[in-house]
Amino acid sequence: MPATVVRHQDNLTTRRLIAERTPGHSLPAPFYTSDEIFDLDLDAIFGRHWIFVASEAEIREPGDYVTVEFGKTSLLVIRDDDENVQVLHNVCRHRGARILTPGSGSVGNLVCGYHQWTYKPDGTLIWAASAADDFDTSCHNLRKVAFRSIAGLIYVNLSDEPNDDIDEVASIVEPYFEQHQLKRAKVAKQIDLIELGNWKLTMENNRECYHCDMHPELGCTYFITWGYPEDAIPPHLQETHERYLSAEAELERKCVERNLAFKGIEELDTRTMGFRVQREALDGEGESYSMTGAKLVNKLLGDFDDAKLGRLSMHTQPNFWCHFMADHAITFAVLPIAPGRTLVRTTWLVHEDAVEGVDYNVDDLTYVWRETNAQDAAFVELAQIGVTDPAYIPGPYVPSEYQVDAFCNWYIDKLNTHLDAEAAE
């Protein structure tokens, strides 16, 4: 059967599933389990929209690189000899071999291990052994990928015509991050975790705190009333909510004094690049994600003079969230591998002058989110097992899960836009 016919049939099936979705409910099972929809996600979502891949702190020096893998795509995020960021397809222009294997490190030039075609870190082909006399190296540079750095956070877009909504989003969110000075940070630790669930279940799990009672370590500092409407705080969380209101008032005062942006801005399903950003208070000592809320790094980021400045959190559709404190920052990248497998890359960043063993201890720095990520991975796996069960019927979201609903709304809208464009071809 011709590929165009197969694609048309798959699109009709997807349209039917979209039509069957009840607003305010989870998605029909095939959205989490189907190979065809997973392939569509890679094309319509990860192939057309701005996705987070790394921070500039991960590639501090010329030649530093990190590979980013999702679906069948492999990218190189690298700093070139002129100290500029480059994003390149990790595909040799000779016969397509992978140039660098998954991971990170530092290189001089990029040398393909198959036939040794050699490229500069900016992707320029500089040597091809035994090429014909009329071979033009300039026609065989590595393919570049559109990217945008937002306050040191690197986003890429694989489309030939990337949407420009990122420009307006950047102008809105960059003032929140500028005083953290991420470009003066370095990696303290990076951990890749494979969750046995669909990438959307990973994102949905992150967008609600309905389950946060199940995160004891996180609950030492993270107000687990997050996301609940003011008039719907459960009785057992009323005391926590009172502490939250008091801590928020104190944080707002400090932010105003220091000219720190803090107010929540949320446009999760109302624009092309859905996002949410806000600086919010932490419980306990209010400084960092530790078991007491006390700071975990003595050398604060940027030029901060006070560790008790809560957490600056941002979420961008479809694959990113982060937490920036005064003492360190944490980024999370969600990268789909297969319908039921997702990589979650967590990176802890500290001031470039912070010394391990003196200013911070890596195990202490990473403890809360290592435990929380492991717990979330277990929840995502439970959800994936459940949606594969024939008894699964999409269930309703509770009010505190409104951001999950917004994520699904955004996702469905982007699929429809993509399918409409294909139908018009």
Automatic annotation (TrEMBL):
Q: Which cofactor does it need?
A: Fe cation
Q: Which domain of life is it from?
A: Bacteria
Q: Look up keyword Iron-sulfur and say if it applies.
A: yes
Entry-linked InterPro entries = Rieske_2Fe-2S, Rieske_2Fe-2S_sf, Ring_hydroxy_dOase_asu_C_dom, Rng_hydr_dOase-A
The record places domain Rieske at: 50-156
> Which terms in the Gene Ontology molecular function aspect does this entry carry?
2 iron, 2 sulfur cluster binding; iron ion binding; monooxygenase activity; oxidoreductase activity, acting on paired donors, with incorporation or reduction of molecular oxygen
Q: Which UniProt keywords apply?
A: 2Fe-2S, Iron, Iron-sulfur, Metal-binding, Oxidoreductase
Q: Which Pfam families match?
A: Rieske (PF00355), Ring_hydroxyl_A (PF00848)
The name this protein carries in UniProt is Rieske 2Fe-2S family protein
